[in-house]
Amino acid sequence: MEEMKQLIDKAKKIVITTHKNPDGDAIGSSLALFHFFKNIKKNDVEVIVPDSFPDFLNWMNDADKISCYDKQKEQADKLFSDADLIFSLDYNALERVGDMAEAIKNASAIKIMIDHHQDTQGFANHYFVDTDCCSTAQLVYEFIEKLEETKNITKDVAECLYCGIMTDTGSFRYPSTTAKTHKIIAHLIDSGADNAKIHQAVFDNNTTDRLRLLGFALTNKMKVFAEKGFAYISLSQDELKQFNFKKGDTEGLVNYPLSIQGIKFSVLLTEKEKDISISFRSKEDVFVNEFAKKHFQGGGHFYASGGKSDLTLDETIAKLEKLLMC
Ligand code: 5GP
Ligand code: MN
């Protein structure tokens, strides 16, 4: 910590990065750290993400200042090569940042990882990692605490951290939510985070199309194997197009089957342009990270993992059903 403190003191140019398809924790923790650095007068700080993020995260202050690598590659490459410090937030391996990996790998900057995923891959110089922690946003709070700088948790920092913790804990209900999480949340509210406003901004922000897609998916596309405690939803490109799919529209959809009595394992398969993207969620004694890693080129947490398949959607469904029927 002492070394990281000195590195931050000395650093002039700081770049904060997170994983592709950024979620609430990725954007929340990145922007929180961005605001924190501004507060301690580290003004030359940038957030660079591999690709765009859902609209329901746009309300965070300075979300419009985030650069997307897929659209501003040249500019971002220069920021990476000029940086003194690069922060890697909410990812454990360079493969999680897609095309941005090379630029981070080749940068001469010192790299600091703040993350809560299993299987940390060693590409950074310093690690602030806790795989038991509910969210990277909570770790950013603990990092600021260790820097003895909690006085610089202003409203902007607090709101972004609140959003990260809220989204990664399923609104404070997953087992990773601890008394400490609630104490931190209390401090964030005391620091100006408007909890009701943040919940509304994130969750009451549906388009009609998104809600109808949810209805369609649950009515027509959810297959339940009650005796196996397993359910999945699959969505093809054509189906997504019918509902004018926008990034983020299927966020959270994988959680619905898990709310059925006796269902402990839920999967969402979404057909993308190049491959099939897969989300896994589970509860109680079922863990999904090894399953995602072994069969679907992915990984993640015990109860929430992701992966992909290069087969067609139908073939992927067949593979999944076969695996779960044994
Ligand atoms: P989601 O289903 O929301 O895309 O991902 C759930 C969790 O699994 C996230 O915390 C994410 O970090 C992790 N995850 C998603 N995709 C991958 C992947 O391809 N590889 C690994 N190692 N983890 C993933
Ligand atoms: Mn996270």
Characterization of this structure:
The protein is of the alpha/beta class and 326 residues long. The chain has two domains: 2-203, inorganic pyrophosphatase (n-terminal core) (Alpha-Beta Complex); 208-324, Roll (Diaminopimelate Epimerase, Chain A, domain 1). It is built from 13 helices and twelve strands. The chain has helices at 2-10, 24-39, 73-82, 101-106, 136-146, 155-168, 179-190, 195-203, 208-220, 237-242, 255-258, 289-295, 313-325; strands spanning 14-18, 45-49, 67-68, 85-89, 110-115, 126-129, 222-225, 230-235, 265-271, 276-282, 299-300, 304-309. A six-stranded parallel sheet has the order 3-2-1-4-5-6, sandwiched between helices. α6 (155-168) packs across α8 (195-203). Bound molecules: guanosine-5'-monophosphate (5GP) and manganese (II) ion. Residues 117, 279, 298-301, 304-307 line the site of guanosine-5'-monophosphate.
